[in-house]
Design brief:
The complex is a heterotetramer of chains A (about 650), B (about 475), C (about 325) and D (about 140). Chain A has about 650 residues and is α/β, with parallel strands linked by helices. Chain A is about 25% helix and about 25% strand. Classes of the chains: A alpha/beta (about 650), B alpha+beta (about 475), C alpha/beta (about 325), D alpha/beta (about 140).
Chain lengths: ~650, ~475, ~325, ~140
Amino acid sequence: MKDKIRIGVYICHCGTNIAGTVDVKEVAKFIQGLPSVVIAKDYMYMCSDPGQNMIKEDIKQFGLNRVVVASCSPMLHEHTFRQAVQDAGLNPYLFEMANIREHCSWITEDPKLATEKAKALVSAAVRRIYYQEPLEVREVPVTPSVLVVGGGIAGIQASLEIANAGHKVYLVEREPSIGGHMAQFDKTFPTLDCASCIFTPLLSAVGQNPNIELMTYSEVEEVSGYIGNFKAKIRKRARHVDEDKCNGCLVCVEKCPWKAVSEFDEGLTERKAIYTPFAQAVPNVPVIDTEHCVYFSKGTCRACEKFCDPKAIDFKQQDKEVEVEVGAIIVATGYDAFDPSAITDYGYGRYGNVITALQFERMCNASGPTGGNIVLKDGSEPKSIAIIHCVGSRDKNYHEYCSRVCCMYSLKYSHLIKEKIEDAEVYQFYIDMRCFGKGYEEFYERLSNEGVNFIRGKVGEVTDRTITEEEQGKLVVVAEDSLMSTMIRVPADMVILSTALEARSDAEAVARLFNISRSADGFFLERHPKLDPVATTTEGTFVVGCAQGPKDIPDAVAQASAAAARVLAMISQGKVEIEAAIAVIDEELCSGCKICNLLCPYSAITSDEEKKVSLINEALCKGCGVCVAACPSAAIAGKHFTTEQIMAEIEGVLV
Amino acid sequence: MRKITIDPVTRLEGHGKIEIFLNDAGKVANTYFQVPELRGFEKFSEGRPAEDMPQITQRICGVCPEAHHMASTKALDELFHVDPPSPAKKLRELLYSAFYVTDHTTHFYILGGPDFVMGPDAPVAERNILGVIGKVGLELGGAVINARMQNHKIIQMVGGRAVHPVFGLPGGVSKALNEEERKEIEQIARDSVEFAKLSLKVFDDIVLQNKEYVDMIVSDAFTHRTYYMGLVDENNKVNFYDGKVRVVDPEGKEFAKYAPREYLKHVAEHVEPWSYMKFPYLKNVGWKGFADGKDSGVFRVAPLARLNAADGMATPLAQEAYEKMYSTLGGKPVHHTLAMHWARLIELLYAAERLLELSQDPEITSPDIRTIPTAVPDEGVGIVEAPRGTLIHHYVTDERGVIKKANLIVATVNNAAAINMSVKKAAMALIKPGKEITEGLLNRIEMAWRPYDPCFACATHNLPGSSPLPIEIYDSKGKLIKKFPAG
Amino acid sequence: MAKLKVAFYWAASCGGCEIAQLQIGDKLLKLAEAADIVFWPVAIDVKYKDVEAMPDKSIDACLFNGAIRNSEQEHIAKMLREKSNVMIAYGACAYEGGIPGLANLFNRQMIFDRAYIETESTDNKDKTFPQTSYQVPEGELHLPEFYNTVKTLRQTIDVDYIIPGCPPEEKTTWLALEALIEGKLPPKGTVISHSAKAVCDDCDLKRDVKKITKIYRPFEIIPEPEICLLEQGLLCQGIATRGGCGAPCTQANMPCTGCYGPVEGVIDQGTHFLSALASVIDSNDPEEIQRIVDDVLDPVGTFYRYSLPDSLLRGASIK
Amino acid sequence: MSFEPKIIAFLCNWCSYRGADLAGISRMKCAPNVRPIRVMCSGRVEPDFVLKAFEAGADGVLILGCHSGDCHYVEGNYKTIRRIALLKKMLSQLGIEDERLRLEWVSASEGARFVSITNEMTEQVRKLGPFSHRNGGSNG
């Protein structure tokens, strides 16, 4: 039997913001007459210290056990007032707020109607709070280790920050080596410093860091648990090379007679069947590509095994499954480059000298397929190169969004071309130049003075159907110059397609795996675009780098550091608060019909076959109430949004 | 003008009243059989998916829900143009036969029987089942209870629920029978046959050996020359579950024989402003008011009517009994309302025999109990013989099988006019000016409608207690001058 | 100790409740030992007048079945309330309006028109309707007033207990009668049944998580044995219906139609089934969702088969 | 005097409620007939609430949630679509005009949309007139 309900109600003038339209005195008078209302006051600024103190004193003086404040939106001050009543010894959930500013005085012209509406809103809060109950804010301990998924620049940055703070990191990378796309780059804009010069040290730092357990050639298969207490199952695919024995001499690679297309070099060259993706690979341990290794198809060869001194080759090696416990998860799975063969007019795949941006990156790279030389298919040097922007970006047919980095790397390419082939003509076909970052506009300025031709216009097609003499033997880029509004034909030896960054092809599965949502463009969705850009709707799981959306290296790194900071904060706290207003199942009423089980977006509901009831994991539940509304037995109660409370609110708001 | 109100009487849909008006001379001026309730099934069936009708319409009557369930399910077969597998039809008829055993047993021993066994003038306190048991012996009493319980068990087994079964679907039934269940049913059926034979013997001993009763049965007070209606099989034998509707005229000549789909050509319903119940009559004769004879469309249904309308019974023992009744009462048709009790026992025997046949049918445990309908539903009529008479369900649906129109002619309604007439005739014959109106006398009036077993006269009647007919006699000023029973 | 005085009464009902009361069989004798039946129009000869004459609260308990459809039923319900210490709503009709409550989708005139004029077999050219009072040559005849809506017993009088079911299963009836006989009645307002949980708790069919991709009608499929009917697309309302019945319908391969009423604490049985069902529709595409929903041909008649008069909106709004 | 409809609006905490706040912050003008009730997610709105609102005297019910894909709880708003689809079918059977119940998506940035929807709804319901249903008492 709960003790007598004694409600105190406080109507805020908010200066004239409310009182200017709403007759607060009349509202207070009306409310004073409602059952269980002990006292109803109006005051200039409830959120001010005197205002809050008034509440605290009244709680003591009048023995209030429920408090309603009618003022602005709870988004602004709910926390303030909850704190206030808590200071006065009341449970914060015995406070309710009526929004008579944003939802009333500010949007209503007629003072009479505004006053009527205010009465309704306040009486709704009063009726509701009658049924409100004290709730416990619960805390769970945090496992001081972190799972980082994806070994690109973002994942690496996050891992290092956390590891350097002295905490365990499990860094999982799908490829045989960490590095991601950044490892493919030659130079980085706008500073033009050598990518590997700044990146390689980071790679080895990861390899050497005792706090980082690196799992390459591995994938996360299952995630369970909740903030502070996740469990992850990771499959370590068989390398067929014993990491402990291998000394990285790579003789095996040298001796291997079998070849396959190099993914790392974007298909511009070949690699062996046993290989490391690139020279500075971390770990520097090769893998056997069983698809192309003849031993696996025909059972003969074994060349690598023969020449391996440390006897590291192990054809029998099996996939391993390991389970790790972590307190937080950082998803840094990166992006895919848009495949331009979809845009047939650009002739990618049809014309050998139409290449993608990443292929060009590799071509420029000293350790790349051409040793850093820009060459045509026939090995000769191109004299004219066209760069087409926004391939797959800002295009209703493919991706509406801007990929943000293309303008800049395209500029970078102009520079690299001019550096390597002084007399080369470079044409930039752009829609708008977007040089928003620090030092970017300056870089654009600089390039404009290096004799690059900027043509504003979307390219219609790239063709080898030539008309004029000078077009002979060249590709022709047909575009509309939207500044001169004429169609133009530009002959070029080589065409570079500045392809879009898009969400990973398996992003949907990954989202499900980590229980995070995706925005319409397919990238992972942050909790709040401005105020919470690295968190997700799943507590304790963060998303960084291009997995969250196209961005350049500095942004990716910044996000990684931000997520690391969030995680470190959790770990140093040692515990996290979890939602108090959650759903609970009354086992006396649950018939175990299992209607609710699949509805929970956080897989918080399971069922106990023994007892024939469903169960809610309180730590996973976020209190959305979807299961509450679905339960045919009303066996699930949504704390702080109980049916009783909402029904009372409905009656109250209709006075 | 004096008025005798018999209230409550019936419960076709709720209660019923019989009003007897006496003129100042003390003669019966007129009587009215009123049904004061309506629930509107024919309206609120609209909009319901047709397949829900067997379960919805059986809530018209919880005494004979099986009858509505069957009529409705058969209407669905026609509506969805689907022919159920023969095992399904047999399961339906099996359940229905068991139902007949319970229902007829209840009526004879608990309702109709006491009048004869104990005699119309026996003290109220004895004229009930306990009195009967006292007279015929506990053994029979036990057999009565047992017959009811056992056959209800069959209904539960086959139909899913003992009251308001659920197994009927267009194209079949929802549940097959397994061998243990079959064995159990077969045993119950054997017992039921024995029980039915015993019942006929009881009737023979107590009623037919008693001249006073026989005279009363054949007396004019309890006689109406009307048309008779009942369902018959292809050999014109009585059938409860299926067949064509046959109507014979007061001479016993076939007047009409039609398939359920044709019922509208033959039956119409008349409305009186003083009752919520309608009064069906033969369309091709016409409504001539509450009168009997060849020129009045009034017809009768239920056991005696079924036997009159048929050429015999489809099972051997029942056929014997059938022949005996007509030879005893001077040939077909028999117009004596009280013979309805005898006819009921003959049907009890038939139901039990049929139950036994079906329980031994090799097909009865077949899992082949459903045909999935594929045709577009449109219209269907289902007719069965409820214990209390011909029962008609008629549905029209849209192309998705949602009810657009439902027309229901419920068993007892068919007898509404006849009941009204019988009460009047008995009252006129029995209530004489100056002659004191005794309880026994009023019970004789009661005996005029009780044989019809209108739905109110169901198993829930006459537990230890007495007449369900409270009777009050008012003088012309409406002052209560006498009341039965006193107290 | 003195014998209990018990009254039985039916209003707008089918008689199935009386049969159900008889189903307790030999236990009837136990009842007869412990209680005198002072009123049971269907069974014994006591007239309304006699009841009116009884002192208030002189009846220990009244088991009332049937809904309130007309003036007579309302009058007698009120009279019995005065005379009875304990008023028990017996069966779905008294409890929630029952199947006759579906009449609340229409009004009196629509029902009369159908019954007395439109019905195919009716011959009523001069449009005669039953009258509450009618002058015949010999005198005046009376009929009770047929109300515009069906009401539940609780909407008419104060009710102490409820025995759910259409009709209540034998064991449910006895559970209540036994409590009555032994003077061990639960707190006022209790719905007396063996279970406060949904029928699923009684049902033996195997159930897995639910995902509805298509709704089937019972005649359209032969359900897989042993598997939850709802998961097979049949609108089995066991999930939203109070148990205690022992789930006889699902045992006969037929979906539960909800006759035991809402589960303990549920306000509106229909919306709860609706919400649960809709929630597990396995699609996020509005058009596909609409397609699946359109296969629910008769939401009201299905979700409120027995409870329309007791739902939050007690029937259709007919202008 | 003219009929002033009462409309209850269930607002999800993350999008629609903030959208309504924005309308206020931007000092847009909006019909006072709409009475907001905050729920964490439109997926919390039980059909019971809608019926209760009508029964308690509302003339219209508005349910506002996040646009598809934006649900703070991943898919709560889809559950709402499903329920309202079936609920609407049932309400139409009960003779309740379709316009009296409306499900819309309003994001935190769509203050103007909140205003136009509420004003539009108010006018629609005003045309329909007061909500009427069987109170069960009418025997006339």
